[in-house]
Design a protein that fits this description.
The structure is a single chain. By secondary structure, the chain is an alpha+beta fold. The chain has a single domain (about 10-210), classed as Yope Regulator, Chain: A. It is built from 7 helices and 6 strands. It has helices at about 10-20, 25-50, 110-120, 125-140, 165, 185-200, 200-210; strands spanning about 55, 75-80, 90-95, 100-105, 145, 170-175. Strands 1-2-3-4-6-5 form a 6-stranded antiparallel β-sheet.
Length: about 220
């Protein structure tokens, strides 16, 4: 299947799911999800895979074990690509009734990764490199996000250079687009490919300076 955009039927499906997040709605409309959400996403990822790597498509079902929100289904469909051997730094794409979201970086770091990240941010060479890249991404329209501390991290001075970056426990850049006609055509592929390419430097910095965790993987 060739990617030809995300059909409007898929966005309408998610509008309905937001209004009625029930097993009945899901069962009645699953053919719409399969044809107009999952199928075009898989086609998109097949075309991106040769350049970026093998994707992981997230399940549409929510993990309810530790959540007070017991609605069973996610109101978006996402997929992530973790470059082989990088350990840190990845690409993400998501479609929903709100439109398209593209992101890259790290969403969750273990304690050993956070320690390496902060050492690199404080470093006289690597720190300015990350700061310059984050500034460039902001100017290009990206939003810099990620869990962060309110206080100064332990072991660092209140007047430390790049303090805002030091407070981060995760770091990723995100762009969002509301529903528009271009989302329904093949040009969406070029937009996502261009956005992911724009995140290469950030992901490379994270791979080189943070890497994989040495802790046992959490479930």
């Amino acid at each position: 299947m060739t990617f030809e955009g995300f059909p409007d039927e898929g966005l309408v499906f998610y509008e309905g799911l937001e209004a009625d997040n029930s097993r009945t709605y899901w069962t009645d409309h699953k053919p719409v999800y399969d044809a107009h959400v999952r199928a075009p996403l898989l086609a998109l990822l097949d075309e991106l895979a040769p350049e970026f790597g093998t994707p992981t498509v997230f399940r549409p079902y929510r993990d309810l074990r530790f959540s007070s929100d017991k609605t069973p289904y996610k109101t978006h469909q996402g997929a992530v690509v973790h470059p082989d051997g990088a350990g840190a730094g990845s690409w993400y794409v998501q479609v929903s009734a709100d439109g398209l979201l593209v992101s890259g970086g790290c969403w969750r770091l273990e304690s050993d990764q956070v320690a390496r990240y902060r050492r690199a941010v404080a470093d006289a060479v690597q720190g300015p490199r990350l700061e310059a890249e984050v500034d460039r991404l902001r100017r290009a329209g990206w939003i810099i996000e990620g869990a962060r501390l309110v206080r100064v991290p332990a072991g660092y001075a209140p007047d430390a250079e790049r303090l805002d970056l030091l407070k981060h426990k995760a770091l990723h850049a995100t762009r969002r687009w509301e529903p528009a006609e271009w989302l329904h055509d093949r040009g969406t592929l070029d937009r996502i490919r261009s956005a992911w390419r724009d995140l290469r430097t950030l992901n490379a910095w994270l791979a080189d300076n943070v890497g994989a965790t040495e802790k046992e993987r959490r479930r």
